[in-house]
From TrEMBL:
Gene3D superfamilies linked to this entry: Periplasmic binding protein-like II, Winged helix-like DNA-binding domain superfamily/Winged helix DNA-binding domain
Chief site of localization: cytoplasm
The organism of origin for this protein: Thalassolituus marinus
InterPro entries, per the entry: LysR_HTH_N, LysR_subst-bd, MetR_PBP2, WH-like_DNA-bd_sf, WH_DNA-bd_sf
Family: Belongs to the LysR transcriptional regulatory family.
UniProt cross-references to Pfam families, sorted A to Z: HTH_1 (PF00126), LysR_substrate (PF03466)
Keywords for the protein's UniProt record, in alphabetical order: Activator, Amino-acid biosynthesis, Cytoplasm, DNA-binding, Methionine biosynthesis, Repressor, Transcription, Transcription regulation
Stretches assigned to the HTH lysR-type domain: 2-59
Protein name: HTH-type transcriptional regulator MetR
PROSITE patterns per the UniProt record, alphabetical: HTH_LYSR
Subcellular location field: Cytoplasm
Length: 306
């Protein structure tokens, strides 16, 4: 009657505090999560939590299962790792390249956790400011690329991580801050600040400006997200960044963010690896740890399949 996925779901519900957040952490839609919980309660014949309380409260039955989850889930995960190591594939190399230059904050905890569980795997990390990462992955120079721009290549496996919204950051006093959303032509008179990479790898050009046939009046490059935000806040230009990367600065009231178009621009972030490495135990475990970390820590993201 009771499945391990039920324990994971209840744990995510407790840690997230709401059905919406639990669904995000489990990489499910809210309706799929609600159906799973309702089915479990019907099979057990008890209610597991009170649905209209804030914060969310568990019943005695729910607390009983949470206690079980806290005992079982860590043991299950460690046993899975041990079995994977017994089966082979416990040593290797994981040299990573980040195309998403705002990803360091959430990727570092995933790397630290991975290093604790796979000490035999050699880890390295760099950005792709000065070279093309996918050709380097194919050559074997690197082993994993975090990217939102998958290329059609039969040698590469793309593991979806999550969807995020690309948003335009503007100064609080900027006229665009008074608009509900941004149109491509709104940027024709703006200085667009962006990372020093080819524009085909930037969402604001490829997914927003190019389809509209619009070119900003000027551009400016910087490698640092914080510097980008400071330039925007001081009225030196506008910048397009992921919603979760902007959130701390929005919370601090430093800038304003607006949607690109009425529906927004929602790319998917991927972890790219060579197909001949995709099934390696340590690669699969890194995928899972990266997913768990980003859904625990990043506001505003959504399951890649949604």
């Amino acid at each position: 009657m009771l499945d391990i996925k039920h324990l994971r779901t209840l744990s995510a519900l407790r840690d997230g505090g709401t059905l919406v957040e639990a669904a995000r952490r489990m990489h499910l839609t809210q309706s799929a999560l609600s159906h799973q919980l309702k089915d479990l309660e019907e099979r057990l014949g008890v209610s597991l939590f009170l649905r209209k309380t804030k914060p969310l409260r568990f019943t005695r039955a729910g607390l009983e299962l949470l206690q079980l989850a806290d005992q079982v889930l860590p043991l299950m995960r460690q046993s899975e790792r041990n079995l994977q190591k017994m089966a082979g594939g416990h040593t290797g190399r994981l040299h990573m390249v980040i195309e998403c230059h705002s990803c360091f904050d959430w990727l570092m905890p995933a790397i630290n956790s991975f290093r604790d569980h796979w000490p035999e795997v050699e880890i390295d990390l760099s950005t792709s400011f000065h070279f093309e990462p996918i050709p380097a992955l194919v050559r074997g120079d690197v082993d994993l690329v975090v990217t939102s721009d998958p290329e059609d290549n039969s040698e590469i496996h793309y593991q979806p991580l999550f969807r995020y919204q690309s948003m335009l950051a503007v100064a609080n006093q900027h006229p665009l801050a008074r608009q509900d959303n941004i149109k491509p032509q709104d940027l024709a008179t703006e200085t667009l600040i962006h990372y020093p990479v080819d524009r085909k790898r930037l969402d604001v050009f490829e997914r927003f400006l190019a389809p509209g046939g619009v070119e900003p009046i000027a551009t400016r490059q910087t490698e640092l997200t914080l510097m980008m935000v400071q330039l925007v806040a001081s009225g030196r230009g506008v910048a397009c960044l992921p919603n979760w990367a902007l959130q701390p600065y929005l919370d601090a009231g430093l800038i304003t963010a607006r949607s690109l178009g009425e529906s927004g621009v929602w790319p998917v972030l991927y972890a790219a690896v060579r197909k001949d490495q995709a099934d390696a135990a340590y690669i699969q475990d890194f995928f899972q740890q990266a997913l768990d970390t980003c859904f625990q820590n990043l506001p505003g993201i959504a399951p890649a399949t949604q």
